[in-house]
Amino acid sequence: MVPFPFPISRAAWAIESAISEGRAEEAMQKLIHALRNGDDDKAVRRVAADWIERIGLPPGAAKSLRKGGKALLEDWLDISDMVRSLQGQGKTYAAAVEQAAKHFGCSDRHVQKCVAEWNGASRSQRENE
Fold it and tell me: Which residue ranges make up each domain of the chain?
């Protein structure tokens, strides 16, 4: 007997049936239930991946995935670490910012925002302890 080209399971079959019959809400609930409860298998994960790929991410949905929080600056941790390291080696803040900006190929203002983000994160962590 020839093997199936992809994994198959009863749960995946039920989810795919609901999708093909236009019962998207039911399919979504079954899929979420299977993934959250650990009842998923390769077939269910394949269905989830196919569905996510098919639906895609509509414009503006990235913010809702972050639950409304602002996006972190690109390379903010690496940039702020480099600035702190350069300051630890005796450089002034301005010189450290300038060198980090050249190293990462970004503006001085971007580096300053990254350092401010790091300072805010470390301050909030100290307050929570």
Answer: 10-65, 76-128
